[in-house]
Write a structure and sequence with these properties.
6 helices; alpha+beta
């Protein structure tokens, strides 16, 4: 869908601001920080600190045993955030600092609106000879919405309740590669600049919300992250991209949150509209309902 809207862009945003009072939390540039003495020790506080929706399940660090099956009334688990400790902390490099997800009731279309979503399907082990009891083992399938199809990008058979730590590195790699490829494709012909031009040929994502009138150019979005004591801000441009407070422009909300957070985030769940508090994911679901999908 190629659009050409004659809408003036909003003025430059102020820098991201702190939320609440200063606190002895990790440095915002330190992406290796994990649960420690000053970190939350319950799931609800962890969600608030990380800026995750209230129905998000924290799979790692584990507060509760992870699910071993998708409930009967859901299709899959959407990966909302994953963070793997890097080489900056050699003693813990490769450890899972954060892994979180949300249940998805129905299978959405793998179209432009959902491109890049990563989900997990948890089922009974297909191999009846697996040594663990069936209730204590699961088959895990990882699917990526890409080029109009839900494509399998990972599969683990007969894993125990430690499966989140097993599959999280693959999830981080897939989300990172897809995000990099998406942003590279968008900017291959129109490189970013201090005053980024409109990408008149941008497709999918927020551009579809604009066309449906569910968002408008210039609307402000926020992402509260109590863990770092900051509130990230962004505005919707008339070409369907997001411009951050520092002027960086991203074609996809997931690319924006990943750039801001240092880990891999599903930006549809993270960003909320200032005017009513609804997430981009809520608006995306409304558009899908309007289409009867």
């Amino acid at each position: 869908m190629t659009t050409d809207r004659d809408i003036h862009e909003p003025p430059e945003l102020a820098a991201d601001v702190a939320v609440d009072a200063p606190r002895p939390d990790p440095d915002p540039m330190d992406t290796t920080a994990t649960a420690g003495a000053s970190q939350p020790h319950d799931e609800a506080t962890m969600r608030a600190w990380e800026g995750l929706p209230p129905d998000t399940m924290i799979l790692a660090p584990a507060f509760n045993p992870p699910p071993m099956r998708c409930p009967d009334d859901v299709w899959a688990m959407l990966v909302t955030a994953v963070d793997i400790i890097g080489d900056a902390d050699p003693d813990r490099a490769g450890d899972v600092a954060l892994f979180a997800g949300n249940w998805v009731p129905e299978q959405p279309p793998a179209d432009n609106l959902y491109d890049g979503d990563l989900v997990l399907r948890l089922t009974h082990p297909a191999d009846p000879t697996y040594p663990l009891p069936r209730d204590h083992a699961a088959d895990v399938e990882m699917l990526l919405a890409y080029q109009g199809r839900w494509q399998r990008v990972g599969q683990w058979a007969g894993v125990d309740d430690g499966w989140p730590s097993l599959v999280a590195p693959t999830a981080a790699a897939v989300m990172g590669l897809h995000g990099d490829a998406t942003e590279a494709a968008i900017w291959s012909e129109t490189p970013p600049s201090t005053s980024p031009p409109l990408i008149k040929w941008a497709r999918g994502g927020i551009a579809e919300l604009l066309d449906a009138g569910l968002v408008t150019a210039g609307e402000e979005l926020i992402w509260n992250r109590r863990k770092l004591g900051v509130r990230h801000t962004a505005r919707i441009r008339s070409d369907g991209t997001l411009v951050l407070a520092d002027g960086r422009v991203y074609a996809n909300p997931c690319g924006a949150t990943t750039a801001l957070g240092g880990n891999h985030q599903n930006g549809w769940s993270a960003f909320r509209r200032v005017s009513d508090g609804r997430t981009l994911g809520d608006l995306r679901a409304e558009l899908r309902a309007r289409r009867g999908q």
